[in-house]
Amino acid sequence: MTSKSQASLEAFELDVLPGTEFELGGTTGSAGRSTATNSTAHVHIHGELAEEEDVEESSQTTEGLRNESTLAPVDTGFSAMAFLVAAFVVEVLVWSFPFSYGIFLTFYLEDPRFASQPKSGTLLPLAGTLSSGVIYCTGPVIYPLLARFPQHRRLCLWIGGLLCSISLLAASYVTKVTAIVALQGVLYGIGGSMLYAPCIAFLSEWFVKRRGLANGIIFMGSAAGGLVLPFVLPPLLRAHGPSVTLRIFSIAIFVALLPTLPFIKPRLPVSKSRGPRRPAGRRAWFKDWTWWTLLLCNTVVGFGWFVPQLWLPTFAGALNLSSSSASTALAVLNGASALGPLILGFLSDRFSPWLLGVLTCVFASAATFVFWGVVGNVAPGLMVFGMAFGLLGGGWSTLWSGFLRIIAKDDPALATLLYGFLMLSRGLGNVLCSPITTTLSSFSGPTVSQTMYGVRAKSGYDVADGRFEKLIVYVGSCFAGAAIVGLAGWGGEKVRKVTTG
Length: 501
Hints:
By secondary structure, the chain is an all-alpha fold. The chain has 22 helices and no strands.
């Protein structure tokens, strides 16, 4: 094989990475023709077999270069921006409904048809946990499958959208609590997972240099939906009841997805979306300490993040705040959570994700202990806590793209695979949040201030006779522990950069 032919093949192999551009002796066509000509001249000396081999490889190279010229640009252009907007819409539709299930739960428990059934008080809350928990915990199944069979990603997208709509429509016609759990909980979660996963898989193809910012914009969707729905659902539920409201949202999801899903498509051909053929590199992540440090840190953050979302309205009620003030406190948290991903996504394209992760965890821990624990006994303190906690902790998952860029390099299939495990580890906190915090909040005893000073001080720790004290300490400790793990990861990254030169 000639040296020029070899160079062409090497360039083609590099080209499987999203966003990789190169030039080989002028224009694409002239490079291919030059390679073919030189290869043919060389093989006449070495025999007929070498000639056939070189000409075939040169033609494949030329064809690959021509295909590359037809691909849409990364990080910019109409197709990339259309994908970004469409993925934002999917984020809103998939996540905001499970995160607002608590509003449905209130009306379910007030309806005698559901509240009178055995174990309704235990089963009905489970539907909300499962609707989001299934999306998280099916990650290690669906993301590897999409990485293995990328040709089915768009089919998966459409099936997931139909399941989300059908699950809510079917749930509107049932009266059994177990059916509510199966349809509005499990089936919706499966549909949401199938709808959401292809968006994440396509993201690494459309965005390279601005991937962190794109991640942040998409992840704003869940918080934006969580900000709006608490003000939309109660009037609908009061006017029409849960059944009709579910039908309205079922139709709304279907109508919103019809013009949206055509823009969620791959940038690369299926052959390239598998990533470079480096089997050994694909297995290297399993022995990479960076990956396991990230997984541990991500799990600890997940165990702390979901607690305020679940308990803030109850805490506001214990302060004797009005229902509107309680809704405002949750809205402030969700609103700040929409800004957090955008800010951290922008920064993650410029700074180490480990550094950003450590800083956000440290400040989120401090905000919990100070604004919720010390001054959380008054409404302004609680609002400040919601704003600070949402702004700092809400953008953590946006950093995933920065971490995976280090571990998976630019292999989109490997990045998709690892994303599924990050979803699972975060989902563990989502699923186990309710039983853990219910146990912690049931304790009522001496408060921190009593232990330290011998008198009862007015603080967030003292609310409801200290009912929420352990819960506040638990959240702050989770983020402090995550900061320590992240600090180890950041230090290790620095050492590796020095040793590798």
